[in-house]
Structures are given as C-alpha cells and as structure tokens.
Specification:
- It is a single chain.
- The protein is mostly helical.
- It has one domain (37-199, 216-263).
- Helix content is 71%, strand content 0%.
- It has helices at 27-59, 73-100, 103-135, 143-161, 168-182, 185-195, 215-263.
- Helix 2 packs across helix 5, helix 3 (103-135) packs antiparallel against helix 4 (143-161) and helix 3 packs antiparallel against helix 7.
- The longest helix has 49 residues, at 215-263.
- The protein is globular.
- The two termini are 26 Å apart.
Amino acid sequence: MDAAPTSTTLAGPPGRPSKGWHRFANPGRFLRLTDRLLPWLWGLALVALVGGGLWGLVWSPPDWQQGETVRILYVHVPMAWLAMGGYVALGALSVISLVWRHPLADIAARELSPVGALVGALCLASGSIWGRPMWGTWWVWDARLTSVLVLFFFWAGHAALSRAFEDPERGGRAAAILALAGLVNLPIVKFSVDWWNTLHQPASVTRLAAPGLHVDILYPLLACTVAFSLLFAAVVLARVRAAVMERRVRSLEMAAARRLDTAS
C-alpha cells in the first residue's frame, strides 16, 4: 500500500525530482509521516486543552473591571489569532499551489479552509457574547469587527469555491487566487485599532516590552492559545490525511476499473 500512486493526481509534474517538500507528493510517504505524528499531536492537544482550560476558566482570577466575563478572553483571542495565522498558512499553500503546482498544497488548502471558517465564526460569536456586557450591544460596524467579518467571508468563500468545480484543479486554482486576494485584509485586521477609532481595545499581548495584561491572565491565555493551536493543527492534518486516502482509494478503483475494461 506504500508504493507510488497509480495516478498522477498526487504525483506532481512529471520528471520533477522528489526533493524538498515534493517528496510528500508521494501519498504513501505522507501517510507514514502522519501515522507517527497524529497520535502525538492529538495527545498533546488533549493534555494542553485540559490544562489550559482549567487554568483559564477555573484557576485564573476574575478581572478587576470585567469580572468573570473576562474568561471569554481565553477562547476569543486564540480564535482570532488562529483565524489570522491560519489564513497566512492558506496564503502560503496557495502560492505553492499556483507556482509549484504541488499536489498536496491544493488538498491541504481545501481541507484547511472549513476549519479556518469555523475558527473565524467562533471568533465572531465569542466576541459578540463578550461585547454585549462590555459595550451594551452585540455588534457594531467598527473597523476591527468588520474586517474580521470580511476575513470570515474569505475563509468561507475559499471553502465554497474550492468545491464548486467538478475538476478539483480548476477549483483549487480559483480558490488560491481568492485566498491571495484575502491577504490584503490581514493588515487591516491587525492595525485597524491603530488606524481608526473603534470600540475594540488596542493590542495588549503583542507589546512584548510592556504587555497590557497581568501575568495571572497572560499566562493562561498563552496556554489556551497553545492548546487551541495544537487542536487546530491536529484537525487540519487529520482532514488532509483523510482526503489523501480518499483520493488514493479512488485512484486505485479507477485503475482496477480500467484493467477490467481492458480484460473484457
């Protein structure tokens, strides 16, 4: 089962040497790698989620102004970071797909975007829940919230467009172009609180010299971020693995059907 694929679907451009990331175009090699990696990733994610969740939601103190509602921070902020960081990964996969035509890049981008869209939706939902007691409203059309909503639309648009064509390659190319266009929105999301007056607070954690959060809140926030990041990586890698296996089985079925047609 670990032999080279019988179809060029995952084999990459003909004649290209199997070097660098192109060696993972061999589905057998990729599946062997994920066989070893995924159990550790799931285990680390579970341990980190339990530890980070207890630290943030149970053991950390309430905020002196926001009280217990500050605990939404431990979900909302990691979701926001993952929505942005994941989109950077989507942009990188799109470049690899368009420039080098790496077969796994299309598959990875296709499986990444639904997870990214879910993360973006959780960011918006948790922010809305947090905004209601803090701002007195569920939603305002300020720069930060609107740009994050646009980011969610790019995530969802990529997920839909990559599946909108019968030919996966056409869908992958169209979705990759859309993903690259969406990269323009990331600086707007990041610097919107600096460029415009918004209800959203400015950066608190990325000011490394003087972070705006007390360590009693900062450390569990970072722990929750690591936990959600590990879970995000595990889910995406598991989806990519399942997609590779599905394409490989389909390729073997098509090869078997061709042999039967030839024999008959």
